Amino acid sequence: MAKFLGIFGSDFPSTAKYEAEQMRLASDYKRFCEYEESIVYKRFSELDTLIHSGDFEKRVQKLKNEKFSDTEAYRHYNSYLALKKSADIKTYLRFVQSGKEAKLESLLESPVYLEFKELEMITHSSAFVAAQKKKDFKNSDEAIQLKRLHDLEKNDDVKFVKHTLMSAEYKSYSTVKNSARLIEFQKLDQYVSSQEFIDFKSFLEDKKRFFKSQEYSLLQEYSEIEKSDDHKWFLQTKKKYPFKDIERLQLSFDDDFDAQKLDASRWITGYYWGKALLNDSYVLAGEKQNFSDKNILSRDSVVSLVTRQEASKGKVWDAERGFRPVDFNYSAAIINTGHSFRQLYGRFEAKVRLKNVPGMYHAFWMLGEKSVPQITVFKTNPKSSKHFDCGSFTDETGKGNVRKTATLVKGAAFDKDYHIFTLDWTPGKLVWKINGEVVNQQTNNVPDQPMYIALSSHVTDDKIGSLPVEMDIDWVRCYSFKK
């Protein structure tokens, strides 16, 4: 079955612009993936989760709005100040801080004061009073004790103790000492003197505390990443996400032809079975060219398959008579990956310039283990440089009933510029594209066997146009589709 598909207008999308766009897209995808896996983006994601958590937002609001006067610590501090300003606590503190407490406690245990207290107790006893009434008192031991008492009463330490114990200050001090109020004050004094309280009060009274906080630092770090050019580009690109096609591609074969000669580990230069069985080239019955390695030129990262008018000897395969020697008047070239690369499904593409003349054609095709199934990515039309065929050959019964599906595509001068020919092959569907624009789709007669790729030139008629002509191949790339 054959059909016609035309692209109306003189050209397909510009090859240079399409290739540049594809290169930019590949570069953007690489950049996108690298940023998505970067330490910076992982850190941003961590910060994003943290910053938008309820707990973090509460901490930020607390840092911004909390006042010292709203805290339990402030209430303790106020209680402390109130007690510290009260008259009895002030008196107590003044008495202690003046040193009177320590001096009094020391003197109350001193020998002088203890002697004084003992003599005072003796002189106030009934026995001493009775002795004092006797006529010989002046010469008695009691008189000596009384004199000693009077002498001690003049002692500065004894006078200090007596005066202090009789003072209103001491009475107030004594009332406060060991009281619940003093115990509470001492607890609060210890609390407000602690480094923890001092730091807490200083922190909450600092009007710039939020800007010194870890939360502010985290918000700043988050904001710096969010405002960065890389992150803004990433978010904008993620929203559009132009990578749905490219992300499913896994490069499985490519050749940019940068070497000085064709890479023999990738390409063979004849029909596969000729090289595999005979280590020689042959052509099929009806073909008028011989394949020659001399017609494969490598220059400026381009491989050219040249078709020439020249005499040569070669072999032809005839299904009835087998291989037979033939004299040829034309030479051409073929390259294929039958020994190195085969694939079932994926994307297969080549950037090619086709210089075509009547009586011959160039082809980009795919073949399995046998002559069918076969896929034609393109086959130029011997009668027009603006036409090419694409399609497939299958033998679903395996009995030689070959079914052909072909489409004629027209719309560009393929001999004037490079074009990128693409085949997307999936189960049950074939899609052909030129410079990214779909030119044909096929859902029947779709092969389902691994195939290798081949590019070749063929002479079909002795009435051929001016030679030599070339098919120039800039690169070939194949991809598998990721699941």
Automatic annotation (TrEMBL):
Domain GH16, residue spans: 234-483
The keyword Hydrolase is assigned to this record: yes
Source species of the chain: Breznakibacter xylanolyticus
Pfam families named among the record's database cross-references: Glyco_hydro_16
One annotated GO molecular function: hydrolase activity, hydrolyzing O-glycosyl compounds
Protein name: Glycosyl hydrolase family 16
Xref: CDD domains: Glyco_hydrolase_16
A GO biological process held by the record: carbohydrate metabolic process
Keywords for this protein: Hydrolase
Domain of life of the organism encoding this protein: Bacteria
Manganese is among the record's keywords: no
